[in-house]
Amino acid sequence: MSGRGQAVLWVLAVAIAVVGDAGFIISGFAPFGENMALEVSLDVAVGFGTMSAGILTWSRRPGNRIGPLLYAGGAAWSLAGVYAFGLFSYLYGAPGDFGAWRDALVVIGSVLVPVHYAILVHLLLAYPEGRLHSRLERALVVGLYGFIGFRAIVIMSDPLTNAMRFLGGQPPLSFMSTAAFYYFSAVALTTFLILTRRWLRSTPTARRILTPVLGAALLLAAVEMVSAGVNLSKTTDLAWASLGLATSPLGPEVLFYSGIVAKLAIPVAFLFGFFRSTIERSGVGDLVIDLGSQQGIGLRDALARTLHDPSVEVAYRLPSRNGFVDVEGRLVSLPPEGSARAVTMVEREGEPLAAIIHDRSLLAEPALIQAAAAAARLAIDNERLQAEVRARLEEVEASRARIIEAGDAERRRVERNLHDGAQQRLVTLSLALGLLSERLDGRAEPELASQMDAISAELRNALEELRELARGIHPAILTEEGIAAALGSLAERSPLPVSLEDASVGRLPEAVEATVYFVVAEALTNVAKYAHASRASIRLAREGNRLQVEVADDGVGGADVAAGSGLRGMEDRVAALGGELRVESRPGEGTRVRVEVPCYGR
Amino acid sequence: MAATVLLVDDHAGFRAQARVLLTKAGFDVVGEAEDAAGALTAARAFRPRVILLDIQLPDGSGFDVTRAILEGDDPPIVILISSREASDYGTRIDRSGARGFISKAELSAAAIRALLSGVR
């Protein structure tokens, strides 16, 4: 409903409430004693409250008849009061002569008096979907409206006289009043039975929706019955009594007030339904938060809590099988149209993503279920994105580790080739040269002998450089003896004293050994180049599945990882294994390079 | 009597040079082998007093060959050789049961004699 339409309804509601009770107000409440002001206020509250509930429900459920019915019921209740306007001017001649207007008000009022009762029955039977459920219900409602129409025709046959007769319960119309009393009582009893049966057959979720309104209706019915009984003892007019309009001034005050409270309970109950689904929609906010927090509460449980339907199921669309599956991947068949279970689709761009299977009664709260579905879509999208990201990340981590391993394997191969090829040949050459110079010893020209010596020296240098190169590519000792021995050999070859504290860690995965070795080698190179240290230490320890290595020196500190590309590259290597490299290097406090990598034996 | 020697290395060029070197120095090179399996066969066949054994063999490691040879009766003296340095093998050489290690580039009759005369 548009904002303008709503504004019109609100203005109209105020006008109806004022006009309906104008008779009481203008008469200054004089005829009815000191409590009349309060009584009229309560009367206005019932009419205006019901119309308000109607507008709010109408605007929220434009396709549902409950809103318009509430509004009409409230209006009928208020407008029926116009008879008083005319009546008082008859009785007291005040305030002024209304002539034909006065008569018209009495007639209109007397026609309208039972209308709100018919609408109330209609409302109760149609709640919450807004339509009647069976032939019996339709018969009851149509019968009531028919009776009211018939009554109006009877009144209009001699308007003023018959109106006064109805209002005063005078013959010859008293037989009709008596018939009306029994008819209305029978309808009330049938309605009560239908509603009780419906409540008993409802699921807990549906009962949550039915209970407030049915409770209010029961309260009203009870009060009306007692009132009617009391009134019957005081008046012969059954219609008057049955409408509950006679509670004042005929009944005791307590009955009057309980009657008003019971009538107020009707719009309050409908308003409660309205505000409760608003409150529950804010529960959808909690749903979003629940799902976002990832604290173990699954989508299904969160939905069940938000919708107050413990039977909620969530089925995920599986495009490859053109069906729906539950969390465990079992095929789920959706309930057919019109069964006790209803399906709300969670869609993205028109494509079904999942189905929420829930109690049918929740269809009466379309805003709630749609909001919940929207939140579920966020959650499902979120879960899927997270799963995708996780899968990608795992893939990238695995491939990064594989690249490192492949690199290591390649380095081992190159080292092995150098060793088997060039190094072997140079060694053989060196042996041959040694033999040659032995044979030439003392017989060759001095010039030739010194040239031989120079060649030998050059060859030794070449061999030495080649060995260093091979070791830098991949140290043989790492393959042969493992990380502890390899670190020992690094410590020995370092130009400054390096102590090694090694808690026998045993053999570790090749990638871990190689990474630790290269990090320590890089760190020791940096110590020798930049630290101006007098000594350094290597500490190797294993705690459970974590290997820790630390290289510390007593040098000048102030090293910057970002500046040196060597450690930077090592950081990447360590990260590829899921480990961490930290450098502490405050100026004047030496440098500490720490590596921690997960490792699971060999 | 000259000490009998078995030469084990997969590099024929190296074996040729080493044979010349050893023969000139008065050793009796009784056989050659180019892999681990050949080394074990030759050791049984020629029963040399000394085996010059390369650590890196195509079908296995010199350490394994050493262990197998030393298990026999009256085993020969094993001298490990490699184009790598002793430090590349950490403590494995010491633990192998071999008499000693000579880097191939340092191979000489003097180095062998020093190991043979030295106490274990």
Fold and architecture overview:
- With 602 residues, chain A is α+β, with helices and mostly antiparallel strands.
- Chain A folds into four domains: 3-276, Rhopdopsin 7-helix transmembrane proteins (Up-down Bundle); 298-364, no CATH class; 384-474; 481-598, Heat Shock Protein 90 (2-Layer Sandwich).
- Chain A is 67% helix and 10% strand.
- Chain A contains 21 helices and ten strands.
- In chain A, the strands form two sheets. A five-stranded antiparallel β-sheet of chain A has the order 3-2-1-5-4. A five-stranded mixed β-sheet of chain A has the order 6-7-8-10-9.
- Chain A is rod-shaped, with a radius of gyration of 47 Å.
- The relative contact order of chain A is 0.05.
- With 120 residues, chain B is α/β, with parallel strands linked by helices.
- Chain B has a single domain (4-117), classed as Rossmann fold (3-Layer(aba) Sandwich).
- In chain B, 39% of the residues lie in helices and 25% in strands.
- A five-stranded parallel β-sheet of chain B has the order 2-1-3-6-7, sandwiched between helices. In chain B, strands 4-5 form a two-stranded antiparallel ribbon.
- In chain B, helix 2 (36-46) runs parallel beside helix 3 (62-70).
- The longest helix of chain B has 13 residues, at 12-24.
- Chain B is globular, with a radius of gyration of 13 Å.
- In chain B, 45% of the residues are buried.
- The mean pLDDT of chain B is 89.
- Chains A and B meet through helix 16, helix 17, helix 18 and helix 19 of A and helix 1 of B.
